[in-house]
Amino acid sequence: MVIVIRIILLLLPVVMLIFWLRWRAQKNAEGDIDEGDVRFLRVGLIAFALMLLAFGLSLRFSEDTAVKGGIYVPAHMENGVLIPAHFEAKKPQEAPPERNETEAVDDNDNDNKPS
Predict the structure, then answer these.
(1) Does 76 lie in the same domain as 56?
(2) Rounded to whole angstroms, how far apart are CA atoms 14 and 95?
(3) Same domain, yes or no: 76 and 53
(4) 100: exposed, middle or buried (C-beta count within 10 Å: 0-12, 13-18, 19+)?
(5) Do 52 and 77 sit in the same domain of this protein?
(6) Where are the strands (E) in 1-115, listed by range?
(7) What is the pLDDT of residues 17-49, one digit of tens each?
(8) What is the pLDDT of residue 77?
(9) Shortest CA distance to 44 belongs to which of 30, 69, 24, 59?
(10) Cβ distance 87 to 70 under 8 Å?
């Protein structure tokens, strides 16, 4: 969702510029720009600014609950209660227990025996 909002925020000024240029070219071809057109332009610009503000705020305050390198846990039932989907941090992997030399020799002896 965050990527979609960023793409929209990137494309909106370009789209608004294109609409404004087309509108301006049409009004220049017709002649004068009257008070109604100026009011329409002001309302449109204010609406555009509010829309950008709303998208920016939604991007800023959207919950990105993913933990980097985390594990996704889907929604599931526990004791009759629905647990929503979430991300959990990976648990650090424990180092395998160190083996002493006699265990290593015993393993090698077992590998050489025919079954």
Answers:
(1) no
(2) 54
(3) no
(4) exposed
(5) no
(6) 71-73, 76-78, 81-83, 86-88
(7) 888 888 778 877 777 767 777 788 788 889 888
(8) 95
(9) 24
(10) yes
Mean pLDDT taken over the chain: 77
Q: Are residues 53 and 21 in the same domain?
A: yes
Examine the domain organization and report whether 51 and 77 are in the same domain: no
Amino acid at 69: G
This prediction's pTM: 0.38
Give the chain's domain count: 2
Domain of 53?
2-61
Residue 113 lies in a domain: no
Evaluate whether 64 touches 2 at the Cβ level (below 8 Å).
yes
- Residue 85's SS3 state is coil
Residue 83 has pLDDT above 90, yes or no: yes
